[in-house]
Automatic annotation (TrEMBL):
Domain Activator of Hsp90 ATPase AHSA1-like N-terminal: start-end pairs: 63-199
Alphabetized InterPro entries for the sequence: Aha1 (IPR036338), AHSA1-like_N (IPR015310)
Species of the source: Genlisea aurea
Pfam families found in the cross-reference section: Aha1_N
Protein name as annotated: Activator of Hsp90 ATPase AHSA1-like N-terminal domain-containing protein
Organism domain of life: Eukaryota
Amino acid sequence: SMESGSAAVVSSEKVQSSSYTYWVREATSDAAPLPVPRKIDPADVGNKKHLGSAWNQAGTWEEKNLNTWSSDRIKELLNSVGSLDFSHGNAQVTEVTRCSGEAFSIFVRNKKRVGYTYELTLKLKGEWDFGGEKKTVKGHLDLSEFSFGELDDLQIEIKLTDEKDLAADEKQQIIGDMKLFLHPLREKLAQFEEELKAR
């Protein structure tokens, strides 16, 4: 039988010493590290750059922020996808317009772990031939938020920029074709993951 809620809630007056260390560590840079490993929240990682050198004498923890390198590298890789040929036309990636996210490598107890989270938008431009009539089409390809190890589950969405002179079935064909960029994009991002691990 449990005593009435004693274990469940620790009031602020009776903070146990172990919790106290934890809260102090959140607030100051020189508090002792916790003996217990804590799951790293990527959102926390970027703001603690000073911790690495401040108390990492034993090499138990080192964290590298790789945001600049990774954003540049992702853009470079995705811009190199080139053009794809389809049954009625072809298209190419013309620009990576949004590349927001972060990447990092963490060195904990002689083990390196890498991670990232990104959202991407790419501009596509192509030309389709419907019944002898060539139509130039532009669109955006959105890759919703994805993280390290999730490339098999990538979700993409296509929005056409200008579709006023397209019939419904033409529009459907073009969106279907543009979705085929998923495969080369996934390959480039897999290459990015390998390079990230090597850093």
